[in-house]
Design brief:
It is a single chain. The chain is of the alpha+beta class. The protein has 3 domains: 17-102, no CATH class; 126-218, no CATH class; 225-272, Alpha-Beta Plaits (2-Layer Sandwich). 45% of the residues lie in helices and 18% in strands. The protein is built from 12 helices and 12 strands. A 4-stranded antiparallel sheet has the order 6-7-9-8, with helices on one face. Strand 4 and strand 5 (99-102) form a beta hairpin. The radius of gyration is 29 Å and the shape is elongated. Keywords: DNA damage, DNA repair, Nucleus, Transcription, Transcription regulation.
Length: 280
C-alpha cells in the first residue's frame, strides 16, 4: 500500500488515494497499520518476530503510569524497546535508566477495547447541520486539509472553519478512492461532544445523502462494444446471439428489435463466424 507517490511532472511528493483513505481512519487503525508494517521488517533488522510479538502482547497487561524494569532483557529486546519508544508506545528517559513506562497509546490498542470506546477518546470539534454545513472549531492544518477532501471550504476565521458537503465535493473524494462510509465515520469520530448527545451522531439526512451520491456512480457501467442490427430473419439473429453468448462476449441482446452488442474483444470471432454462416 503506497501512501505517497513522487510525481514526475510536478517533481514533488503527492498523496495517493490510499493515503487519503489512511488519513480518514481512526487513530488506532492508523497505529496498527504502522505496527504491522514494522513487524514485516523485524527479521531484516535481525530481530525475532516471535520475541517481538510476545513482548508487545505482554504490554497489554501493563498498567499505565507504572514503571517496569529492563533487567534481564537481551540486546534484541532492548533494541525493540527503543523502536517502541520512537512509536510512542513506551516512555524511556534514556537507555541506561533501566526502566520504562508504557503509554496510554499502546494500552488502548492492545487491550481489545471496542472501536466505539476508542473513538470516544478523540476530542471532537465538528458541529454538523442537516443543511450539510460543517463547523470546525480550532481546526489544525491537517484537519483543514482533510475537510477540503470531501467538502467545500466557504470561510475560515482564526478559530473557526465553515465548509459545506455537496454532490460535487463528495464526487471529488470518491474519484480519489474514498468511500462514503469513510467520510461518515470521520465525521462521527471527530464530532463535537454536544453532537454525541444525539443518536445518530451524524444527522441521518447528511449520512443518507452522502451514501446516495456514492450510489449514483454505480448506476451505469460503461463497456466498449460493437452493435449488430438489421437482421432480416429472426433465425439469423438467434444464431449470432447464441454464438456470442456461448463465447461469453455477448453484452446486450434484444430479440424484439433484433439487435445485439458484443464486446470489442469478441468482435473479430463473431464477425468471422457470421461470414462463414453466410457462405453456407
Amino acid at each position: 500500500m503506497v501512501l505517497t507517490d513522487c510525481s514526475e511532472t510536478a517533481h514533488r511528493m503527492q498523496i495517493t488515494s490510499t493515503g487519503f483513505q489512511f488519513l480518514l481512519l481512526d487513530r488506532s487503525s492508523q497505529v496498527w497499520y504502522f505496527i504491522l508494517k514494522y513487524l514485516e521488517t523485524v527479521s531484516e533488522r535481525g530481530l525475532s518476530l516471535v520475541s517481538c510479538l510476545q513482548f508487545l502482547f505482554k504490554l497489554s497487561f501493563a498498567t499505565h503510569g507504572k514503571d517496569y524494569s529492563m533487567e534481564g532483557m537481551d540486546e534484541e529486546l532492548q533494541t525493540f524497546l527503543q523502536h517502541l519508544r520512537e512509536f510512542g508506545f513506551v516512555f524511556l528517559r534514556k537507555r541506561s535508566s533501566g526502566r520504562f513506562y508504557p503509554t496510554r497509546l499502546v494500552l488502548n490498542i492492545t487491550s481489545g477495547e471496542k472501536k466505539s470506546q476508542l473513538m470516544e477518546v478523540v476530542s471532537g470539534n465538528l458541529v454538523l447541520e442537516t443543511n450539510f454545513r460543517i463547523y470546525a472549531y480550532n481546526p489544525s492544518q491537517l484537519q483543514v486539509a482533510l475537510l477540503a477532501i470531501f467538502s467545500d471550504i466557504e470561510c475560515r476565521f482564526p478559530n473557526l472553519l465553515v465548509s459545506t458537503i455537496s454532490r460535487q465535493s463528495v464526487r471529488k473524494a470518491l474519484l480519489k478512492g474514498i468511500v462514503a462510509e469513510q467520510i461518515i465515520n470521520y465525521l462521527r469520530m471527530h464530532a463535537h461532544k454536544q453532537m454525541r448527545k444525539f443518536n445518530p451522531v451524524v444527522p441521518k439526512t447528511l449520512a443518507d445523502q452522502i451514501q446516495l451520491w456514492e450510489l449514483e456512480r454505480e448506476r451505469l457501467e460503461y463497456t466498449e462494444g460493437v452493435l449488430y442490427k438489421d437482421f432480416i430473419l429472426q433465425q439469423d439473429y438467434a444464431l449470432l446471439a447464441n454464438f456470442a453468448k456461448s463465447r461469453g462476449v455477448l453484452v446486450y441482446a434484444d430479440s424484439k428489435s433484433r439487435t445485439l452488442v458484443v464486446s470489442k474483444k469478441g468482435h473479430t470471432a463473431v464477425k468471422n463466424f457470421w461470414k462463414e454462416a453466410q457462405t453456407k
